[in-house]
């Protein structure tokens, strides 16, 4: 009798030992008893199951990094692009992730691909290239609804790369080059305008004191001579040119005045000759 009790106790102990399971820190255990979810989700540590009756499925609750393959589409402004993304999510309800969906990771991948195609068709090319923050929020909202029903939380979703056709890349390069050239010309013209304004102010100041022009001339000569050149070029004084110009204009005016007096006298003499002719004939 004692031997039978010992045998039964040993068998019972072995039966209980076979039901011991260990749940890791990054896992949660969902226990099925005779095919139905039993009790609460098993936390990390040692847990005891009823052999033969219980079956536990472990669910990883770590953040999953899932790359979304490149999806081709046409943007709102009719540009063909290829866009890929990356999705970060984790399981927050192990029961839903186990019972309500067959493979939550595969399901999330498919939803991410379709959502990415949809967001491409609703966006313009400039938004895909520079306004990605709004697109990320839009993708997250589109993925959050089905993910909640599967016990999954979306941490973040981001667009990785946008591939453009070669013709579009060349067009954008020409546009960028033209824009930079336009800005360079505007800056150059603005610099010339400011320089001209300063030169006009300097000329007005120098005109008040004629000696300043001579001092500026001497300073220029000193700067040229400092270069150790064998030839020194001296600029012709501007005042001398003005003197010659004024003298030429005065001489021309006097010459035109003498010619006018001679022309006036010549007709007067010619008119007197016909008046005397009848008198001589008579």
Explain this structure to me?
It is a single chain. The C terminus is likely disordered. The chain has eight helices and eight strands, in the order αβββββββααααβααα. 12% of the residues are buried. The strands form three sheets. A three-stranded antiparallel β-sheet has the order 3-2-5. The protein has a three-stranded antiparallel β-sheet with strand order 6-7-8. The chain has a two-stranded antiparallel sheet with strand order 1-4. The termini are far apart. β2 and β3 form a beta hairpin. With 282 residues, the chain is α+β, with helices and mostly antiparallel strands.
Summed up:
This protein has 282 residues and is of the alpha+beta class.
Number of β-strand runs: 8
Shape annotation: rod-shaped
Low-confidence stretches: 266-282
**What is the averaged pLDDT score?**
80
Which strand order do you get reading across the main beta sheet?
A: 3-2-5
Oligomer: single chain
Computed CA radius of gyration, to the nearest angstrom: 50 Å
Tell me the fraction of residues in β-strands, as a range: 15-25%
User: Which class do the helix and strand fractions yield?
Assistant: alpha+beta
Helix content: 55-70%
Report the biggest beta sheet as strand number plus sense, adding barrel if it closes.
3 strands, antiparallel
Helix and strand pattern: HEEEEEEEHHHHEHHH
Distance from N terminus to C terminus (CA atoms, Å) equals 197 Å
Counting DSSP H or I runs of 4 or more residues, the number of helices is 8
């Amino acid at each position: 009798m004692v031997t039978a009790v010992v045998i039964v106790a040993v068998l019972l102990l072995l039966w209980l030992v076979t039901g011991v399971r260990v749940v890791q820190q990054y896992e949660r255990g969902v226990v099925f008893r005779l095919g139905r979810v039993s009790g609460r989700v098993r936390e990390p540590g040692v847990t005891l199951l009823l052999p033969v009756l219980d079956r536990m499925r472990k669910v990883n609750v770590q953040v999953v990094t899932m790359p979304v393959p490149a999806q081709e589409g046409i943007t709102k402004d009719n540009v063909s692009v290829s866009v890929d993304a990356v999705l970060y999510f984790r399981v927050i309800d192990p029961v839903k992730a186990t019972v309500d969906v067959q493979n939550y990771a595969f399901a999330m991948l498919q939803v991410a691909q379709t959502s990415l195609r949809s967001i491409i068709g609703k966006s313009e090319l400039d938004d895909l290239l520079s306004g990605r923050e709004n697109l990320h929020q839009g993708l997250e909202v589109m993925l959050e609804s089905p993910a909640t029903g599967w016990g999954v939380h979306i941490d973040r979703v981001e667009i990785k790369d946008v591939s453009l056709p070669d013709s579009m890349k060349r067009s954008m390069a020409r546009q960028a080059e033209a824009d930079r050239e336009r800005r360079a010309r505007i800056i150059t013209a603005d610099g010339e305008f400011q320089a001209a304004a300063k030169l006009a102010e300097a000329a007005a100041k120098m005109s008040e004191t004629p000696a300043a022009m001579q001092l500026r001339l001497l300073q220029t000569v000193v700067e040229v001579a400092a270069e150790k050149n064998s030839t020194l070029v001296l600029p012709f004084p501007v005042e001398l040119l003005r003197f010659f110009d004024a003298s030429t204009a005065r001489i021309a005016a006097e010459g035109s005045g003498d010619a006018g007096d001679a022309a006036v006298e010549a007709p007067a003499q010619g008119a007197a000759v016909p008046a005397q002719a009848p008198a001589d004939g008579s």
